[in-house]
């Protein structure tokens, strides 16, 4: 069980949206994690090396916040094997599908991109089916 | 200046994920578990994020160029093709198995390195597998 947190999640969503909106207006870029990671690994850092600097802000801020105020949400990960299998499929699939939850789910839908809407519907569906199979057919976890 | 802005944008994004609870993999899996312990919080993350991002995109569309950079680089390819659907389907399976996508993984790596670093290594290997196979 995790607690339903509409206010916190809506507030966090607005911050994510502000980041995406500012990236549109200031940079004319989408902040899709798949693209930012792939290009950074390719040493394509972008104008003024904005991509690695974005990643530094993303990586460091939650740690700083957690030292000031512990997360009310907790941290309950899956086991090591699901993390490794899941990580690989996410890394491969997001490249084939040209994006993930940030690039398609937030930035793409906000532009009313048909591709991003199709991608988001697809990954939501397969993710729901995957969790259903793991939790209710296999029963428990991987 | 660009670096400072990029740091702030990353901080907003990471802070938003943290505040929203997206750094807890169980919160994602519970969102996806419609038939079980459903936690609809993620709908509120998207409901908060998408309209605000849309305002930014509408402002950008009214301008000749962005305020800091010289050109707009937003995907223009509009065809819903097989790689898009197949890749997204695979992404969704991995997301459901792990409860993590790339953004939240980066956001929690310093807090929970023992769990997240194996995930990120696998993520990079998956990305490299794509480069091997498709390029």
Report on the architecture of this protein.
The complex is a heterodimer of chains A (142) and B (135). Chain A is mainly α. Chain A has one domain (6-139). In chain A, 73% of the residues lie in helices and 0% in strands. Chain A has six helices and no strands. Chain A has helices at 6-27, 33-41, 50-68, 80-96, 101-110, 114-139. In chain A, α5 (101-110) crosses α6 (114-139). Chain A is globular and about 50 Å long. Chain B has 135 residues and is mostly helical. Chain B has one domain (2-134). In chain B, 70% of the residues lie in helices and 0% in strands. Chain B contains six helices and no strands. In chain B, α1 (2-20) packs across α5 (102-108) and α5 (102-108) runs antiparallel to α6 (113-134). The radius of gyration of chain B is 17 Å and the shape is globular. At the A-B interface, α1, α2, α3, α4 and α5 of A face α1, α2, α3, α4 and α5 of B.
- Please identify the structural class of chain B as seen in this structure: mainly alpha
Mean pLDDT of chain B: 97
Element-by-element helix/strand order of chain A: HHHHHH
Largest interface: A-B, 112 and 114 residues
Which band does the percent of strand residues of chain B land in?
under 5%
Classify the helix fraction of chain A into a percent range: over 70%
Number of spatially distinct domains of chain A: 1
Unreliable stretches of chain A: none
Computed over alpha carbons, the radius of gyration of chain B is 17 Å
Summarize this structure briefly.
Chain A is mostly helical and 142 residues long.
Q: What is the topology?
A:
The complex is a heterodimer of chains A (142) and B (135).
Chain A lengths: L5 H22 L5 H9 L8 H19 L11 H17 L4 H10 L3 H26 L3
Chain B lengths: L1 H19 L4 H8 L8 H21 L20 H17 L3 H7 L4 H22 L1
Helix pairs in contact in B: 1-5, 2-4, 5-6
Describe this protein with a few key phrases:
heterodimer, A: 142 residues, mainly alpha, 6 helices, 73% helix, 0% strand, B: 135 residues, globular
